[in-house]
Design brief:
With about 230 residues, the protein is an alpha/beta fold. The protein has 8 helices and 11 strands. It has 2 domains: about 120 residues, Response regulator (Rossmann fold); about 90 residues, Winged helix-like DNA-binding domain superfamily/Winged helix DNA-binding domain (Arc Repressor Mutant, subunit A, Orthogonal Bundle). It starts with 7 loop residues before the first strand and ends with a strand.
């Protein structure tokens, strides 16, 4: 996987509310998302977009999800998660026979969908394992590398640990004491201002001159933001 790539998801559904909800939700999780409102558009889009995962509604006018799944599986390498409002065993069997990788019944949990997407990515694209996308960051724990907006960051071991800690706790406010104990261990006897020094260094490497990416929460600590 190159530094510019991210996991690509194509959402196919004739319900605008579903498209909007999943587009926004998956986009916030760091996926590159394209949408299609019918089967014909989906097939054309998939050939150009080459999605890693297709979230595919079964019941659509014109070309239904079963036929779209069959054609997708014959043309590109992708994982297909089918969505249906009907909890019919025959439908699930038919979809899986045509090559679908998973099946979910509407209404569904967004968190469960995320888990199933990750599972399908691990199964179908094992070469991409160990890579996690968090907003504009690409985290490769196996290589201990972090890319930001497609560019590999040149980080010292301590800078890497600190940025990694902020990223996996994104949205949470981490106090200087928490950071010291996690990054420098419980026996560290130095001054808390060492955290400020490393935060400043990370901001410089991120071009975060206005502190919009790594925010200071006065009297509480630091929080990393993706938006």
């Amino acid at each position: 996987m190159t530094s510019q790539q991210q996991f690509r998801v194509l959402i196919v559904d004739d319900e605008p509310s579903i498209l909007q909800f999943l587009d926004m939700g998956l986009g916030n999780e760091g996926y590159i998302v394209h949408t299609a409102k019918d089967g014909i558009i989906a097939l054309n889009e998939a050939l150009e977009f080459q999605p890693h995962v297709v979230i595919l509604d079964v019941m659509m006018p014109g070309l239904d999800g079963f036929e779209v799944c069959r054609q997708l599986k014959s043309q590109i390498r992708t994982a297909v998660i089918m969505l249906t409002a009907r909890d019919e065993v025959d439908d699930r069997v038919h979809g899986l026979t045509l090559g679908a990788d998973d099946y979910m019944i509407k209404p569904f949990s967004f968190q469960e969908l995320l888990a199933r997407i990750q599972a399908r990515l691990r199964n179908l694209f094992p070469e991409l394992g160990g890579i996690q996308f968090l907003g504009p960051f690409q985290l490769n724990t196996a290589k201990r590398e972090i890319h930001y907006q497609g560019t590999l960051l040149e980080l010292s071991p301590t800078e890497y640990r600190l940025l990694h800690y902020l990223l996996v706790n994104h949205g949470a406010v981490l106090s200087k004491r928490q950071i010291l104990e996690h990054i420098w261990d419980y026996d560290f006897n130095g001054e808390e201002n060492i955290v400020e020094v490393y935060i400043r260094a990370l901001r410089e490497k991120l071009g975060d001159t206005k502190h919009k990416r790594i925010k200071t929460v006065r009297g509480a600590g630091y929080r990393i933001e993706f938006t």
